[in-house]
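FORM 7B - TANDEM STRUCTURE REPORT

SECTION 1: FIRST PROTEIN
SEQUENCE AND TOKENS:
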Amino acid sequence: MNLNQVTVPSLDLAKSVAFYEKLGLKLIVKALPNYARFECPEGEATFSIHQVEALPEGDGVMVYFECRNLDDYVRELVEKGIEFDEMPNDKRWIWREARLRDPDLNQLVLYYAGKNRKNPPWRIV
């Protein structure tokens, strides 16, 4: 089994498509107003958004995108007008993270973990 895609809800796909393109994802399916799908700049995973009439309540889903040059990438996004809730910082779980929300308030985490992504010191062997 391999992860194909993650899909998040959106009230306004046109607005969300523009946001995710600004983040650097490549639009590969544009079935507005109901659905859009993107390729990530690296790897084989895809990411999609779908139209909903109401957003789910609560904290919702957190989507993590790994970025090799996190600090530089976040600086580029800030220059493009992307606002962050949390700028890059080191976490106790040995990842460096920056946090933001998309236009529908879905939580996004841009991070770099290197070898600790799948092999932290506390990994079960």
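SECTION 2: SECOND PROTEIN
SEQUENCE AND TOKENS:
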Amino acid sequence: MSEKILVERVKLKRAYESPTADDGKRVLVDRLWPRGVKKTEAAIDHWMKELAPSTELRKWFGHDPARWEEFRRRYAAEIHEHRDELDRLRDMIRQGAVTLVYSAHDEAHNDAVVLREILLRHR
């Protein structure tokens, strides 16, 4: 699978944005359900809590951009402890588009960004 196709297949979207037809499979990658989002409106196909940062790491990070690089390193280590779930997600991507859904306000510094980087880097 070419890199361009793969990049196009792995999308990111906040849980507060409306689902669209081109989202493909919608995978929630947060440990907690997004506040104020109804399950029926979220259109989540899979909730992969195991791939979310641990509670301890999430609290330590606190969405502080100054801690971003260290968060990325620690979170990548945690993700690799869940190879089965990561492989399951990769299989979904091989079948078609996947949108990683997250609830963080910061679109540049969140767990879905790191997870996408890992998926694209380790094909």
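SECTION 3: OBSERVATIONS ON SECOND PROTEIN
The beta strands are 10-14, 25-28, 46-47, 98-102.
The longest helix spans residues 83-95.

SECTION 4: SIGNATURE
Preparer initials: ____
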